[in-house]
């Protein structure tokens, strides 16, 4: 296998051969890779749980925040496709930035990546465990602590990741279809049976936003809700025809999930009642649960099941992505060689899977016990998004450098200059605006955490 840190301009490429084997080449078609992107975004979680958070900042214009985030992410996605078709590697952004900008920049990108992909399953499973604990206690007087769910779910996800990419893809397909169907049905039901205010389009008028800073912070969390599409990149070496499959999966995942989030957030707010946004934000119980109980009665439990499906699927997807990047970095010499070991039967990076299990439990239990699973989810959501601002921007720079220096015959001003520049400017503008005025804790800690982490890496 090749060392992807070398450049394309004639320098020798180091060959690294592993006695343990390779990842399972050609195991996934377009549908499998696409579901990695969609479930990585976590449709039910992105809709049912970020909507109360985004509405707390943007008010009734939360769907507009999702729309703005969708447009920004689409530009970012187009840029990544321009890299994915030339560098089909399990390293993802690590490979892209190493090959186009510099190996050092690639390492810093992967350093920030450690704040994002490997931590995701820990805080997501802790959060859904907390939601499940509260719901079971309130509805059925059953005591089931969040940390117990984290341990059980973490063990299940680790087993799935260990057993092979085909099993992961099958479960992500089943979980993904179920959660999308349930959330979409609830949202459409809300449009047909609207609350106070009826069906209206006030959610898409910028003047209805509470403030520019509030709308910008809502966009930050909306971008967080849409993150995950880039998670298809680390599956390149296990995909059929990755140079074509990955770009198609990335764009399809963004288009589908962008439209899904805008429609569903609007439907849920209309179903609740756009004149009751303050009650929506201030509800102690998740407002989408309350809406489901009003519209569906006892069948509201399907919404809780959709959330469980969503978190299990995103944990599997992020574990797949994290372990493949660790594998690629170990293969190229940036991490200990032991992480490049591949299971002889299942063809999965077995030591990377074990390391990921440790990270999942450490993040989930550690932060959850310290600040609580709810605050953990909010804090890490902001941390991830601020980290992704730099990761996405590095990828955008890589697109411009690749096509302006090495592939000049393919250079296209819109695809390789305008989109990367606009995407980067939009990210930094939204990031800056979200900090003025300075947010309240725990979100206030996120920029400092990212800055300190980046400083240590430098």
CATH superfamily: Amino acid/polyamine transporter I
**CATH topology name:** Amino acid/polyamine transporter I
Helix % is over 70%
Main sheet attributes: strand count, strand direction, barrel closure: none
Note the total helix count: 17
How many beta-strand runs?
0
Provide the CATH top-level class.
Mainly Alpha
User: Strand-residue fraction?
Assistant: under 5%
**Low-pLDDT windows of residues:** 1-20
Shape: globular
- What structural category do the secondary elements indicate? mainly alpha
Q: What is the H/E order? A: HHHHHHHHHHHHHHHHH
The structural domain count equals 1
Mean pLDDT: 88
Alpha-carbon distance between the two ends: 28 Å
Please name the CATH architecture: Up-down Bundle
* Cα radius of gyration in angstroms: 21 Å
List strands and helices in order, with pairings.
Blueprint: H1 30-41, H2 43-48, H3 50-58, H4 62-84, H5 93-100, H6 103-140, H7 146-163, H8 165-192, H9 212-226, H10 242-272, H11 277-282, H12 287-296, H13 301-331, H14 350-371, H15 373-406, H16 413-433, H17 446-457
Helix pairs in contact: 1-8, 1-10, 1-13, 3-9, 4-9, 4-10, 4-15, 4-16, 5-6, 5-15, 6-7, 6-13, 6-14, 6-15, 6-17, 7-8, 7-13, 7-14, 8-10, 8-13, 9-15, 9-16, 13-14, 14-15, 15-16, 15-17
What report would you give on this structure?
The protein is mostly helical. It has one domain: Amino acid/polyamine transporter I. It is built from 17 helices and no strands. Helix 9 packs across helix 16 and helix 14 crosses helix 15. The protein is globular, with a radius of gyration of 21 Å. The N terminus is likely disordered.
């Amino acid at each position: 296998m090749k060392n992807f840190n070398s450049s394309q301009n004639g320098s020798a490429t180091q060959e690294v051969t592993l006695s343990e084997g390779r990842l399972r080449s050609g195991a996934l078609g377009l549908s499998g890779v696409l579901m990695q992107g969609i479930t990585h975004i976590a449709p039910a979680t992105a809709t049912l749980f970020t909507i109360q958070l985004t509405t707390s900042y943007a008010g009734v214009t939360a769907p507009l925040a999702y729309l703005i985030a969708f447009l920004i992410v689409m530009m970012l996605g187009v840029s990544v496709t321009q890299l994915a078709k030339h560098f089909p590697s399990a390293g993802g952004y690590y490979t892209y930035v190493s090959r186009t900008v510099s190996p050092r920049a690639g390492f810093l990108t992967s350093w920030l990546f450690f704040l994002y992909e490997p931590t995701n399953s820990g805080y997501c499973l802790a959060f859904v465990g907390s939601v499940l604990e509260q719901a079971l206690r309130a509805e059925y007087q059953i005591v089931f602590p969040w940390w117990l769910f984290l341990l059980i779910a973490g063990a299940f996800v680790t087993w799935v990741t260990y057993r092979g990419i085909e099993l992961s893809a099958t479960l992500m397909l089943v979980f993904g279809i179920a959660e999308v169907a349930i959330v979409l049905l609830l949202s459409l039901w809300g449009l047909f049976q609207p609350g106070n205010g009826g069906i209206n389009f006030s959610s898409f008028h910028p003047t209805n936003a509470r403030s520019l800073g509030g709308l910008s912070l809502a966009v930050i969390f909306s971008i967080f809700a849409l993150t995950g599409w880039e998670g298809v990149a680390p599956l390149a070496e296990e995909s059929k025809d990755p140079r074509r499959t990955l770009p198609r999966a990335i764009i399809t995942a963004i288009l589908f999930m962008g439209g899904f989030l805008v429609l569903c957030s609007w439907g849920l707010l209309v179903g609740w009642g756009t004149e009751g946004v303050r009650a929506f934000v201030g509800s102690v119980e998740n407002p989408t649960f309350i809406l489901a109980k009003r519209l569906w009665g006892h069948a509201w439990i399907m919404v809780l099941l959709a959330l469980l499906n969503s978190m299990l699927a995103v944990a599997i997807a992020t574990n797949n992505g994290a372990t493949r990047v660790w594998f690629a970095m170990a293969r190229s010499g940036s991490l200990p060689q032991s992480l490049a070991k591949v299971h002889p039967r299942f063809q999965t990076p077995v030591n990377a899977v074990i390391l990921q299990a440790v990270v999942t439990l450490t993040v989930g239990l550690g932060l959850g016990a310290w600040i609580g699973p709810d605050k953990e989810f909010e804090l890490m959501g902001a941390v991830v998004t601020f980290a992704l601002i730099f990761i996405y921007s590095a990828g955008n720079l890589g697109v411009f450098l690749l096509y302006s220096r090495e592939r000049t015959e393919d250079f296209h001003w819109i695809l390789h200059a305008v989109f990367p520049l606009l995407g980067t400017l939009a990210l930094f503008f939204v990031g800056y605006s979200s900090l003025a005025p300075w947010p309240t804790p725990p979100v206030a800690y996120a920029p400092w955490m990212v800055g300190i982490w980046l400083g240590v890496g430098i």
